[in-house]
Amino acid sequence: MPIFFIFFLFILISSVHALSCNKLEHDSLLSFYKQISVPSPEIPLNWSSIDCCKWEGVTCNPESRVTHLSISGGEIANLDFSPLKKLEAIDFGNNSFVGNIPVSLCLCRSLIAVRLAYNQLTGEIPACMAGLKSFSHLSLSYNFLSNVVGAFRILIRCDHLSVLFLTGCFNDEPVPNDGHLLHLNGFQNLQILSLGECKLKGEVPSWIGKLKKLKVLNLSYNQITGTIPKWLGSMPSLFVLNITRNHLTGELPREIGNLNALVSDDADSNLSNLALPFLFYSLQYNRLFNLPKGIKVGNNGLSGNLPAELGNLRLLTELDLNDNYFNGSIPNELSRLVNLEKLDMSGNHLTGEIPESLKKLHFLSHFTVANNDLEGEIPKGGQFDTFTNTSFEGNPKLCGSVLQKNCPPASNGGEDEMLPPAPEEEESATSLYTIPFGLGYSVGFFVVVISLLFRSSLKCFN
Ligand SMILES: *[C@@H]1O[C@H](CO)[C@@H](O)[C@H](O)[C@H]1NC(C)=O
Ligand SMILES: *[C@@H]1O[C@H](CO)[C@@H](O)[C@H](O)[C@H]1NC(C)=O
Ligand SMILES: *[C@@H]1O[C@H](CO)[C@@H](O)[C@H](O)[C@H]1NC(C)=O
Ligand SMILES: *[C@@H]1O[C@H](CO)[C@@H](O)[C@H](O)[C@H]1NC(C)=O
Ligand SMILES: *[C@@H]1O[C@H](CO)[C@@H](O)[C@H](O)[C@H]1NC(C)=O
Ligand SMILES: *[C@@H]1O[C@H](CO)[C@@H](O)[C@H](O)[C@H]1NC(C)=O
Ligand SMILES: *[C@@H]1O[C@H](CO)[C@@H](O)[C@H](O)[C@H]1NC(C)=O
Predict the structure, then answer these.
(1) SS3 for 145?
(2) Which pTM was predicted?
(3) Which InterPro entries match (predicted)?
(4) Burial class of residue 340, CB neighbours in 10 A (0-12, 13-18, 19+)
(5) Assigned architecture for domain 1-123
(6) 171 lines ligand 5 (CB under 6 A)
(7) Strand, coil or helix: what is 411?
C-alpha cells in the first residue's frame, strides 16, 4: 500500500510576481526529483510542462510560488540543496525520509527554518550547520539521531536560534551538560527548548540557567535524576516548565514561586513572533504558540511539602504535581492562582482537608486530588459542583455528597477548633459567587477547548 508523504517546500527567491512558475524553482524542483533515488512507481509524477504550478503533487500560491510538494520520501542524503541558494525554509516534516541530514543543506546560507520532524533520519547533526548564521528554527523531533552532546556543541554556534524541537530525536544518551556549553555564552536567543522523550540521563543541566530568553523548557519523559534546581526560579522569561516523567527527587524548591513570567504581566509571554507563516498557514499563528502557562512536575520522586510560594504564580493556568511523594497539607495559598484551569495533585501523600478557599478558582475545570490521604468534607459550591467522584477517589477519609458519603457532624466541629478562622468573605460571599460560577465554568471550558486546539497544533510543529 503506497503512502503519500507530504512535504511543504518554501522557496523564497526574488519576489518578482510571475504569472507562471519561476524558472529557478522549476529547475530546482526537477533536479530535486531526479535526486530522490527511489521514486515510487505508484506516484505518476507528471512534471513535463513549463509551469511547475500545474505539476502533479505541486501546489502554488496566488503569486505562483511553490508552496506544497507531495512526493514520496526516500534517501534524503541524495537531495542536493546546493542549487537552492536562496532557500530560507524547508518543511519536510512527516515524510519517510531516511538517512543522514544532507551536508548540502549548509550551502543554503539564507536558511532560517528547517523542519525534518517525523522521519526516519539517522546519524548526527552535521557540523557545518554551525555556519548557518540566520538559522532560527530547527525541528528534528521524532527521528533516530545520535550524539545529543555533539548536536548542542554545533547548534550553540547558531546565534539566532530561537526554537529548538528535539523531542523523541535522541535515545538513551547523557544530558548535554559539559563545560563547553556552560562557558560559551550561547543560545542567548533561544526561547523554546523541547528535549522530551529522549531517555536522557543525568541532572538538569546548569547551562540552561543562563538562557535569559527561554520561555518554554520541555524535558519531559527522560531519565533525569537529582533535584529540581533552585535557579530555575530565577529564569526571567520561563513560563512553561515541563519535567513530567523523570526521576527527580527532593523538594519542589520554593524559589519556583519567583518565576517572573508567571508573576508579572509585564513579562513577554507572546510566542507568536516565533511562528513562521510557512508552518500551518491554515491556523492563525498567534494561536499556534499560545501555550498554556504551566508547571508540570508530575510522575517524579519529589517529596516534602508543597511550597506556599506556588501561590505567587498568579498567571499560571496549569499545575501538575501528580504522582510524586508530596506530603503535608494543600497550601491555602493555591487559592491565589486565580487563572488556574488545571490542578492535578493526585497520587501523593497529602493530608488534611481540601482548603475551602479553592472555591475561588473560577476557571478551574480539571481538578483532582485522587489517591492521597486527605480527610474531612469536600468543599461545596463553585467549580467543586462540577467535579465528579473520580477527582476525590482513593482518599478513604474524605466525605461529601459527591462521594455519596455523609460527613460525621462531630468530626467537623472538632477540627474547626484547630483551624484558624476562615476569612469572613467566605461565608457571606457564597450567594454572590453562585451566579458567576456558571459563567466561570463556561468561559473556563471555552479556554480549555481553545488551549487543546493550540496544543494539537503545536504537536504538528514538533
Ligand atoms: C500531464 O500533464 C500534461 C500537460 O500538462 C497533461 O496533458 C496530462 O493530462 C497530464 N497527465 C496526467 C496523468 O495528469
Ligand atoms: C503524517 O501524515 C499522515 C498522512 O498524511 C497523517 O495522517 C498523520 O496524522 C501525520 N502525522 C503527523 C504526526 O503529523
Ligand atoms: C514536550 O515533550 C513531550 C514528549 O515528552 C511532547 O509530547 C510535548 O508535545 C512536548 N511539548 C512541547 C511544547 O514541545
Ligand atoms: C508536557 O509533557 C506532557 C507529557 O509529555 C505532554 O503531554 C504535554 O503536552 C507537555 N506540555 C507542554 C506545554 O510542553
Ligand atoms: C503578539 O505579538 C504579535 C506580533 O509579534 C502581535 O501581533 C500580537 O497582537 C501579540 N499578541 C498578544 C496577545 O500580545
Ligand atoms: C513529609 O515527609 C518528610 C520526609 O520526606 C518528613 O520529614 C516530614 O515529617 C513529613 N511531613 C509531614 C507533615 O508528614
Ligand atoms: C462514582 O459515581 C458513579 C456515578 O456517578 C458511580 O457509578 C460510582 O460507583 C461512583 N464511584 C465511587 C467510588 O463512589
Answers:
(1) strand
(2) 0.79
(3) Leu-rich_rpt, LRR_dom_sf, LRR_N_plant-typ, Plant_LRR-RLKs
(4) buried
(5) Alpha-Beta Horseshoe (3.80)
(6) no
(7) helix
CA distance 187 to 358: 40
Report pLDDT digits (tens) over 29-81. Answer: 777 666 654 445 444 567 778 887 787 656 666 777 665 555 556 677 777 77
Q: Which single residue is written with the C-alpha cell 480527610?
A: 375
Interior angle at CA 368, CA 367 and CA 369, nearest 5:
135
How many angstroms separate the CA atoms of 64 and 324, rounded?
Answer: 55
Q: In whole angstroms, what separates CA 49 from the centre of its chain?
A: 44
Locate the domains of the chain by residue range. Answer: 1-123
- Nearest atom in ligand 5 to 270's CA: 1
Q: Give Cα 31 to chain centroid, integer Å.
A: 37
pLDDT digits (tens, 9 = 90+) for 192-211: 999 999 999 999 999 999 99
| Nearest CA, atom 14, ligand 7 | 403
Estimate to the nearest angstrom the gap between the alpha carbon of 265 and the chain centroid.
21
Q: Are strands 223-225 and 397-399 parallel, antiparallel or unpaired?
A: unpaired
What's the CA gap between 424 and 431, in Å, rounded? 13
Query: Using CA positions, which residue lies closest to atom 1 of ligand 1?
Result: 46
Choose one of 138, 197, 200, 241 to mutate for the ligand 3 pocket test, by most ligand atoms within 8 angstroms of C-beta: 197
Residue 272 Cβ contacting ligand 5 at under 6 Å: yes
- Name the closest ligand to CA 139: 3
